[in-house]
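Minutes, project huddle
Topic: does the predicted pose make sense with inosinic acid bound?
PN asked that the exact inputs be recorded in the minutes so nobody has to dig through chat later. Recorded below.
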Amino acid sequence: MGSKADLIVGLQWGDEGKGKIVDHMAQSYDYVCRFAGGHNAGHTIVIDGRKYALHLIPSGVLNLKAKNIVGNGVVLSPKDFIKEMMQFDDLEGRLFLSDKAHVLLPYHAHIDQAREQMKGDKAIGTTGKGIGPAYGDKVARHGHRLGEILDPEKLTEKIVEYFALNKPLFNAMGVAAPEKEVLLAEIQSYKEVLGKYITDTTQMMWHILDEGKTILLEGAQGTMLDIDHGTYPYVTSSSTVSAGACIGLGINPKDIGKVTGIAKAYCTRVGNGPFPSEDKGQEGDLLRKNGHEFGTTTGRPRRCGWFDAVAMRHAVRINGVDQVALMKLDVLDGLKEVKVCVAYEVDGKEIHYVPYDLEDVKPLYRSFPGWEKTEGIRVFDDLPDTAKSYIEALEEMIGTEVGIISTSPEREDTIIR
Ligand code: IMP
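Predicted holo structure (tokens), as shared on screen:
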């Protein structure tokens, strides 16, 4: 009997706390797979006092019984990936990289940073890692697939030729062409380390599904950063939603099992772009302080605000969410009043969906009484009544159940309903 792959996706603007849930779930799956994004994502895990920073390697790496697949939908920087691998012993037999994933090279990061600088106050606020330019090359059909690093001479020739053809453009951006010999040596070193992990992961996915293995698909970033369904152009360059898992791993919609959507009990966003429920006042500052809302990958302070039920309904529908994991409830502890954005106002009209442009929408709030303390609570019934009412009201508003509630960063401080 075949199996279905369970899926975890972010429902907001990333940083929802997927790491805690994925790490927890990765303990009980045979395979953990990444399908989109690159090393712009990131979370830190502490095990037995040792800290691990994961950006692209799936979280199953910390479960010695699990195998890890990096799918074709990912953009992979060999240099950064190798650095990440150094945290672990030999991963042969536990790590598989799609030969169709796209290669992100240092010049992609230079282009990303140059473009952001040229945009001035219209900058997206990217992580500067080269994600957009690498996906751009893929879609423009002059990208390079990971399988190509197995022939370093040929790949070097192609990159040198590409730079020669686009010289005026790169000159204008101040991006230098890589030196041929240096580039060749670099790609040869990538082949040496990564070569043995590169394989046809699409065939592998079909095979493990047919064999009935348990499979967890680990999303990166969040729905509102999706290239099609997010707040374009202030988005990342990949399909972060459920459907992206099919594209990014070569499986079909019928292969997907349970979808768990991760959301914080409030909202954050890093980088620029619309954020209707942002609180630029003292309460936003308090959420940032109490929630330690600073980026894992870039260290940037995150913009903070209230739970946005309109954007959440949009995310629940797009992703086909079966249950929501509500993270960081304890960050709201001690607030007198907790607000939820329940509708938007556009040109004096109240709307209940995410419009084409979120730039000028005004949030309409409903207010809930706060509570003293939820931190560390592990049983739903032990929560203060006001916190229970808050969660039940959210369920009503977003039309799906909150099956998991997190009340501290600790793995055990989790309510499973
Ligand atoms: P890029 O993915 O580096 O191109 O950045 C595009 C936008 O996505 C920026 O607003 C980034 O801050 C945001 N972004 C990318 N990765 C993450 C993430 O892992 N968490 C939160 N925001 C992210």
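Observations noted during the meeting:
- Residues 14-15, 40-41, 124-127, 129, 131-132, 221, 225, 234, 236-237, 270-271 surround inosinic acid (CB under 6 Å).
- The chain has two domains: 5-76+202-416, 102-196.
No decisions taken; revisit at the next huddle.
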